[in-house]
Amino acid sequence: MESLNRGLIAVKVKNGVYIGWRLFGTDPEEISFNLYRDGIKVNPVPITSSTNYLDESGVEASIYQVCSIVDGKEQPCSEKAEVWETSFLTIPLNKPEGGITPDGVAYSYSANDASVGDVDGDGEYEIILKWDPSNSHDNAHKGYTGNVYLDAYKLNSTHLWRIDLGRNIRAGAHYTQFMVYDLDGDGKAEVACKTADGTRDGEGKVIGDIGADYRNKDGFILQGPEYLTIFDGMTGRELVTTDYDPPRGKGEDWGDDEGNRVDRFLACIAYLDGERPSLVMCRGYYTRAVLAAYNWRDGELSKVWMFDSLAPGNEGYSGQGNHSVSVADVDDDGKDEIIYGSCVIDHDGTGLYKTGLGHGDAIHVGNFNPARPGLEIFQVHETPQAMGTEIHDAKTGEILWGIPSTEDVGRGMAADIDPRYEGAEVWSSTHWKTGGAGLYSSSGEKISDLNPQSFNFAIWWDGDLLRELLDHDYCEETGIGVGKIDKWDYENGRLVNILTADGTRSNNGTKGNPCLQADIFGDWREEVIWRTDDSTALRIYTTTDLTDHRIYTLMHDPNYRLAIAWQNVAYNQPPHPGFFLGHNMEKPPVPRIYEVKNQRDLEV
């Protein structure tokens, strides 16, 4: 896994300066820390119980460093951290100019989904941001769209590059699933996504025919070549381009000839051999579903396997996909599987199982019930049925319990929000117009007739181990909302607001997504990136609540780190680690990982 720095941050608060830093998954258990302000140690004894600190004597001009202590010896100090004036870091953006479609309709741009990766190998994450035109469309809707852009920004606001995907890539949630990850183990992340004739890389090079225009009169792109491109993360330069696999083929195989179901794409990163990451590009889930796995090694792109639901032996896998995807080692063999919705594809490209419950919009994979072995999958389904909301065993597909639905259940959430019950709690939007179906424990016990009217994201934010709920104040008139974080008052059955990010906006309509939620820096708790209301900047919000829980950075948990890679895919879903993180949790298992250093630095 990537080699990170300590992610040290310092934030001015009312009674001093809050400081937070990373515990690595590779750190020895007995490690402790010293904290320095302007070169002077501020802690009287080594810090052993947490990776955050309140320096009551700190001021905005202070400069901090943290030094680990191993076997009684202080190690070289971390990078330096200046003090933030507020609890968010502002990153100004180079907002693209709008344009006019061939039918004379003007459009503008908003910052949309984002991902993170260390593209230059310095141990700090960079942000890869997708720009969405105002006329982006769901696949079911006609209309031209503006071009899709991908930008890279450093945390110091440096704009590294821009990739223009060109007129032959349509804009919308189901088209551009961009993966950011160190695919070849050189210590620097690459960027991978679907491209087409006219795509321009970060150095200005055009892929394919710059003059080609395959858009039909309805704005759909149903002809012309389709490509998969790996880009250099530091420069945006094209490294390799190959034909996109799976190809369109016959439209009716995917469910229609109108550009709807044939152009439903997913993507993810998975450790298919248990050692190094592979790229998995996917197409289709309403009917036919095809997944193709690739390795990017030593400058060569090779296909590892392909799974096709129409192939002999794969009967029953068609129609089992989701508007999202997840990755985890569900059978504990040390190799990752792809959770494609109501089916799981094994690490070797064969079908592991299917539940037969069909397509759904929301899915969560994690150790939600610590009383039973292995992982669970919580899923909601589009087709009304006896198990419209359900939990099943991630290894076998055995349905553990569920509740019926009479409509398309579009949302579902799994998070530990009530300490009175073991494990996570789950709820869904079934019957939401009449208040919902209630709140359930992970073992299926109905806790309350009331459930949170917040279904979109969950986030570890304050000082306890319960998870908070990340959402937005949605405005039906504008279709967007102001980002917010609420805590569930389990005693009174209500949401209590703990953060309203005034001046920000959510993404993707009613889904209320941030640009990204991830453990980007500081201790194990999560940060959230929202765009400003005019998309001239991103804001990265961090907690300043003290906690005495010491947990290694979630980015060193493989399940969580891979979830950050796939978070931008289609209908964004929140990340979960591979262990239970919540009230009365056991000590997290030591992750079986090693860090990959930047090869250039090693040579020096």
Automatic annotation (TrEMBL):
It comes from the Bacteria. The keyword Nucleus does not apply. Keywords: Lyase. InterPro entries: Ig-like_fold, Integrin_alpha_N, RGI_lyase, RGL11, RGL11_C. PANTHER family: RHAMNOGALACTURONAN LYASE (EUROFUNG). GO terms for molecular function: lyase activity. Residues 1-84 form the Rhamnogalacturonan I lyase beta-sheet domain. This is Rhamnogalacturonan lyase. Residues 89-591 form the Rhamnogalacturonan lyase family 11 C-terminal domain. It holds the Pfam family RGL11_C.
